[in-house]
Amino acid sequence: MGTPALALALLLACSRAAVVAAQDTERIEGSAGDVLEDDPVGRLKVYVYELPTKYNKKMVAKDSRCLSHMFAAEIFMHRFLLSSAIRTLNPEEADWFYTPVYTTCDLTPWGHPLPFKSPRIMRSAIQFISKRWPYWNRTEGADHFFVVPHDFGACFHYQEEKAIERGVLPLLRRATLVQTFGQKDHVCLKEGSITIPPYAPPQKMKTHLVPPETPRSIFVYFRGLFYDTANDPEGGYYARGARASVWENFKNNPLFDISTDHPPTYYEDMQRAIFCLCPLGWAPWSPRLVEAVVFGCIPVIIADDIVLPFADAIPWEEIGVFVAEDDVPKLDTILTSIPMEVILRKQRLLANPSMKQAMLFPQPAQPGDAFHQILNGLARKLPHGQDVFLKPGQKVLNWTQGPRGDLKPW
């Protein structure tokens, strides 16, 4: 399925000619741009529960790798809130309550999060706050938010079939979930959830920036797994076959720079690419979404029905390209058919600093970053309706519901 060398030369020549024009930025027009630039200060107050350190700080002390993996948003959100202007020390005036529990900071020797203890950790933390403060019990969590950044959020399993079988942890079914997972009409996406980007180390990315005039001489770029033989030996489940299809169709196509290798120039290479593939893996989302936006590489999103981070603020349809999983074999035709003026506009929008800022969790926090976008999302849910507060003696949640293993103490 090779593309003629002449077409390749033409595309690369066009990308070089366009790179200077693409450095101009373009503001997002309309309500999305306004939302992106909102300031949450003065619009809400958050009370941060003080939990025993076994739920948070001790877990990081035990394994510092938790600070750099893609689920680290739960840690940095906690640190940010402790010094944020929206924090209140008076729970009686709080709009929202936050429970700092790190459910993904239990890692294998290879650094992969183990979700199997997560339900027990979360149940234990909720039992703790419900016994020591009155605020959980008056709403059963409806004015509480939890950061659950695992593959399938509060379903707490990395395989979709098992995650669906488990469903959202019963005790979180009235709470607002802040999660990286988002897929339309999916049991693991609770209505009202706030979908956020996965964590990507901001300082590390900053050290790999190349000069803005660097030509984008790579047409399509991807580094990552195509088959997960360890967890999906038969090859039909991982990424629903989409990644395997990318490899089988385009491994010999000169327009596609794709490989399982992860070179030290990975970040620099993304900045030299026009399109960066962002296919689903075990879950629909990928850290490549963050990296592509930060490095101005047009994300090619291959994940049917995905719900993207901060979708009311970031115009994903305008900055990215969506390709159905079944259409992967036509990727080359789809991408080479996009008019140059459309590519240039996407690059101008991606060059907007506010777009990049919204995808990152920097320390210290900066105006308009992902922390602030989360707070903006919470502010837009206010005021709480009367149905949030339970009548005296009323119960909605079932504390004994769920798999037997989840009910063990932690």
Automatic annotation (TrEMBL):
Signal peptide positions on this chain: 1-22
Domain Exostosin GT47: 43-338
A GO-annotated cellular component: Golgi membrane
Main location as per UniProt: Golgi
Keywords from the UniProt entry: Glycosyltransferase, Golgi apparatus, Signal, Signal-anchor, Transferase, Transmembrane
Annotated membrane topology: Single-pass type II membrane protein
Protein's cellular compartments: Golgi apparatus membrane
GO molecular function per UniProt: glycosyltransferase activity
Pfam family, one: Exostosin_GT47
InterPro entries: Exostosin (IPR004263), Exostosin_GT47 (IPR040911)
Coiled coil (UniProt feature): none
Entry keyword Transmembrane: yes
Protein family: Belongs to the glycosyltransferase 47 family.
PANTHER family to which the protein is assigned, alphabetical: EXOSTOSIN HEPARAN SULFATE GLYCOSYLTRANSFERASE -RELATED, GLUCURONOSYLTRANSFERASE OS01G0926600-RELATED
Protein name: Exostosin GT47 domain-containing protein
